[in-house]
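Researcher: Sequence of SYPL2 protein follows. Predict its structure.
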Amino acid sequence: RLYQVPYEMPDCEGASESRTLHLIGDFSAPAEFFVTLGVFSFLYAMAALVLYLRFHSLYSDNKKLPFADFCVTVCFAFFWLVAAAAWGKGLSDVKAATRPSSLIGAMSVCQGQEAVCNAGATPAMGLANISVVR
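Model: Prediction complete. Tokens:
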């Protein structure tokens, strides 16, 4: 929810004046989908572990239960792939929306002929990139 993040922009008309702008975009849905699927996967893994260890005879005697377990596992694997791709796309959108050059381009104070604007430091996105690789 980048639209909730404010940042200050200097206003050249008044020496000490500044305007508050907000970032653009809401990329929370892919992250929420990724985290929700992770929580459900963890809960299913714990339930399956209890089933395997505590009710082993029920699992080995019933022929439909292992097949149902296999189908649920395949569904989780597919949705995990979809969620990882959605999180990767959401992260690339966040990186594009917060790129220093695009933020400077949106500032009207930097559009003048005599204005010299620079971004300073480039944000570190290494840990965010690693979260997609996992």
